[in-house]
Structures are given as C-alpha cells and as structure tokens.
Design brief:
With 388 residues, the chain is α/β, with parallel strands linked by helices.
Amino acid sequence: MTGTSAVIPAAGRGKRFGKDFNKVLAEVAGKPLIAHTLSVFQVSPTIDEVTLVCGRADIDACREIVRRFSLDKVTAVVEGGEHRQESVWTGLLRIRPETKIVVIHDGARPLVTEQIIAESVSAAATYGAAIAAVPVTDTVKAAGADAFVAATLPREQLYAVQTPQSFQRDLIMEAHEKARAAGVRATDDAALVELIGGKVKITSGSPENIKVTQPRDLDFVRSRLAGGEAAAVRCGFGYDVHRFAPDRKLYLGGVEFPGEEGLEGHSDADVLLHAVCDALLGAAAAGDIGRLFPDTDSRYKGISSMKLLSQVSELLGEAGWRTINVDVTLAAQRPRIAAFVDEMKANIASALGVSVEAVSIKATTTEGLGSIGRAEGIACYAVGAVGR
C-alpha cells in the first residue's frame, strides 16, 4: 500500500506513571518503550512513513532512539503541544503531501500488531474513518451527580476504544481544523470526525493493546515482549571450518588451548565464535562475518574473535534485537574441550549480555571420516535465537 502515514503522539508527561521522565522512554525488554511501538510500524508493509511527536525535552533522546534502532521510516521527530490534540495536529502538518491515509497511534501502546494496523487502514480507505476497539465485557452504568445509578447501558453496544485510529487525510485535516477554529478539544481523534458528521467504522483491537499509564502496566508489557505473542523471535544458523596451521595459537570460545596447534585465518581463527557470530547475524538478517569483517581489511589482522562477537552484539542491539540463546556443536578429533566449556560459555554470555544458562556448547567427532576425521581442521555448527 502507498500513501499511508503514521503520526505517533508521545509528548505526554504521564503524571499517573509516577516518574520524573516521559514513560515512553522507560526501558522494557532491552529497549525504550517507544522503540517497541515504532518497531511495529517500521516492519508493517502498510505504513510508508512515520512522524514521531514528543516533548521538547525528549527530542534529542527520541532522535537517538530512531538512529540507534535503525527506524528509517521515521522521517520526522517534532515537538508536540501542551495537549494531545495539539501534538497530533503538529504531526499532521508534517506528513507527505501525497498521503492518502493517516494512522494515529499512541506512543505508549507498544503491543499493537501489524494486523490491527492493516485492518484499521483498510477500513479507513473504504469508510473514511476507523478505530480499533474491543467490546466491553463488564456491565457499565451511568451515574448522576449524586453518585446514584442513573442508567444501565446496553453492554452489547459498548466498545473500549484504542488506537490506531485511521482516517482519509482530507477528513481528519478538516476535523482538526474545525475543532481548532471552534476551540473544541476531544479525548480522541475519532470524536472530532464525529463532530463534523463523519461516520467511524469499528475494527478489531486487542485486549493486549493496552496504553501504558501506570508502572504496573510495564510488567504486563514486559511479559508479552519477553516471550508472548507480541514478541518477534528469529533463529539463525552458523557454520565455519578452519584448517590447522603450524606456529599459531589455538583459540576456541575465547579460550587459549596451551600446547595445541592453532588454526589458519586472518583473525585469531576462533572457529567456534565465528559460527556463533554468523548464527546471530543470520537470525537478524544482518549479513555475515565475511562481509562485516573481511580478511582484506588490515584492521582485523590477528584480531580476537571475542571482539568480533562483541561488535556483532552491538550491531544486533542497534537494530533492535537481543540475543535469546545460542547452541553450539564443535566437530573435531582434537582437542578435548570438556575442561574449558564453562569458561567458553562464560565468555560468550558476557559478550552477548545473556546468562550462562543461555549458552550451550557440545563437541563431537566424525568417527575418523572426512577432513575433520583426519584431524586436518575443526568445524563448528551454531544455532542462535534473537528477539525484539
């Protein structure tokens, strides 16, 4: 789809959050809350561009988040107003002229899904305006000024409104312009469209698509991003092989093996760490060590592969990924590695920022078969999982 712009208001101070900083900057599952929200729009094929609206004090921090996590669909980070409606208006003024559909979504709703966004945009294209919402399950009563029940509302007609809210561009611009002229302020953008006689289609939201307003909400979000349906998890496979070479030290898993013949290579030739690097890079679709650290570059001559693994970990973090676990199988006739496994696991865990329990290292022989069986070199296989 083309011509679809998202406006993400994130300028609120969140007084109910009880902190002295904007809640969207709170760290959750390895990155700021707003980065999780923006990442969904980044990968959504429905969205062409994103405008992030934040408070003046947070502009530099938000721009750094956009850079750090490679959120290149974010074409503008702009200062918002005193109220949400003013912030949305500021964002509307920055979207591309060719935009046909505008998607407005709260920056503090990180559990939105690509499907929710796509359904909202599709409905807006057909009906002019659409809101994501979930049916109310509790009985709702209206109260009078004296705090007595005035009416019991028909539950089957009631919905709890969420974002995204999507609109044809001309419609939402008209609604905001007329509201500004009349001095009208509403609690959401759909209400402004309703005030000018527009019809708003309800699309499916999700009970998990909550807006973070209190610290306890972060616990729920953290549990979902850490391993629930909202989490993105990918697996990658790595393989490397090096022949033995005289007059070189042997390094495996960042550990030197005294008295053992080393491996041939441009770096320290740590075949185990090279396989781990490629597994993680493959999981994140971020290339391979041959491309990132070519043997034609003198900077990597004799470099410790522990440094390469640390750089891979940093690269993954900048792209919004975190390592979940790695599983390694070393294929060699020699050396025996059992006495060094714990140290190797600790090295890898430290470089990747994971617990030792997230690293598995095993070894096998090839029963004398092939070049590995003839002890001409060492091969290594690795599987790595990353999440965001």
